[in-house]
Design a protein that fits this description.
With 85 residues, the protein is mainly α. The longest helix is centred in the first third of the chain and has 17 residues. Strands 1-2 form a two-stranded antiparallel ribbon. It contains 3 helices and 2 strands. Helix content is 49%, strand content 9%.
Length: 85
């Protein structure tokens, strides 16, 4: 049986590799897909961590976001909150 840390690392690597093939717009869509999506667990934490890692790697400014509470749009490598989302 795998330890939780090993599983989390493997899932993170898997998601990160998948996101490598995503365009910036597709990555933002993945981010927006998590807005209002409750729950937690190893897979979800790994998924969210991989999204954040890709945003940093691509130098996309996500400083206006507060967790996954509101949807965003991407403009000139910066994520902006969508009103009424």
């Amino acid at each position: 049986m795998k330890s939780n840390n090993n599983l989390q690392h493997e899932l993170y690597d898997e998601y990160n590799l998948r996101f490598d093939d995503y365009s910036d717009t597709e990555l933002v869509d993945a981010f927006n897909g998590q807005v209002g999506n409750g729950g937690s667990g190893t897979a979800k934490l790994s998924y969210l961590r991989a999204i954040k890692s890709q945003l940093i790697k691509r130098e996309i400014d996500f400083s206006e976001t507060v967790g996954y509470t509101k949807k965003v749009i991407l403009k000139d490598k910066k994520m902006y909150l969508v009103e009424n989302s």
